[in-house]
Amino acid sequence: SKGEYRHYMLKEIFEQPRVIQAALEGRLSGNSVLIESFGPDAQALFQKTRQVHIIACGTSYHAALVARYWLERYAGVPVQVEVASEYRYRHPVVPEGSLFVTLSQSGETADTLAALRFAKTLGYVGTLAICNVPGSSLVRESDTTLMTRAGPEIGVASTKAFTTQLVALMLLTLSISKARHQQEHAGIVEALQTLAKVCEQVLVLDGQIEQLSQAFAEKHHALFLGRGAHYPIALEGALKLKEISYIHAEAYPAGELKHGPLALVDSEMPVISVAPNDDLLEKLKSNLQEVRARGGQLFVFADENVGIRSQDNIQVIELPHVHEALAPLVYTLPLQLLSYHVAVLKGTDVDQPRNLAKSVTVE
Ligand code: M6R
């Protein structure tokens, strides 16, 4: 049941600290990841893994895009990410030593399942499913699986399934790094252990985000900007807003602004950005300056230490500092809350948006 919450989506957003902790339970030991979490054959499989192909749809696809940044940076393996409906009709070239990974909340998404069946004919070293539903088709048909343990997700707009997928993908990154290069990333493991706490601190910002949402209720368009691993977080923020508030939203890597979308920016265009404290911060700041110079209205979720402050045309909500590697996960939360509150203001059916189904079991 929804308990004290008005909608399942809100309940599921607030469950995230607990399910993130559940997704980590028994999968770390001291400052190290336990590769066996991926099954008894995982060590051998990851040692053979020279590149990774990740296939998914919708929100799960956005999680895969984040994982590309992580796997390349921290595990040193090349990664390709694609939506299942495209992959299954291509003629993919599969280099030796490729691992095939699917991501799915339901484990029943028709295109993702078809992609897995197709991939099995292409000579991958193995297939791994990261999934939230035990016993689902995807889980049954993959060589190896890791469950995300988010619990049942009722809201059509995926929230806790996404953040627990990110936890699982970070565990995959750490496991491949350890199996292939004996490299541990103790700092990330340590940060994972306090991740649920940081998420709790972010959820406390709910009231501030609800206030902010009023600026969106009358808008017809919104632009989301991010850089690096936060570009997929911008994509996910835009998808959430579209799905439940029916406001047209687009996401761009901030560096692409000048190549077209800047033409859309005027005083009617809200621009939402996430600004964690990472090595792209200065670049992002100058992109935001480009928006301000055109009179765009900026809404920025920023690390408390980066010194971006509210002023004319820019409203800032500060987030607690978090390890750079885990920032994509943490910065997802305020974007979920923002779209939730905008949808509530607009009076849409938050848990059952028009035209959408929770599980897309037909092509
Ligand atoms: O169950 P799956 O993760 O395979 O579902 C994939 C998409 O259909 C799903 O993420 C969809 O985009 C959500 N409605 C997003 O909120």
UniProtKB/TrEMBL annotation:
It comes from the Bacteria. The gene is glmS. It is an enzyme of class 2 (transferase). Its EC number is 2.6.1.16. Keywords: Aminotransferase, Transferase. This is Glutamine--fructose-6-phosphate transaminase (Isomerizing). The chain holds residues 247 to 609 of 609 of the full protein.
